[in-house]
Fold:
Amino acid sequence: MSYFINSFSSSSIESQKNTPKFNLVDFENMKANLKSLSPSQLRSLKSSIEAELTSKSSSSITDEELSMISSLFR
Structure:
């Protein structure tokens, strides 16, 4: 269980960004293990997840995409 909790530290999250995604069984096991976390651990995990989602969703369009969009209005 300590591996599960430690696997969500910020440095561990950074090192796992380029690793393969969880398979379905691992993902379901992780979700089941969430029940054993304390409220403060869940809040910390929630903050990390929200930060990760925000950083991925706030990326701007590339120059190539902008050029293509601009060409539509010429």
Summary: The chain has a mean pLDDT of 77. Helices lie at 2-6, 10-16, 24-33, 39-57, 63-71.
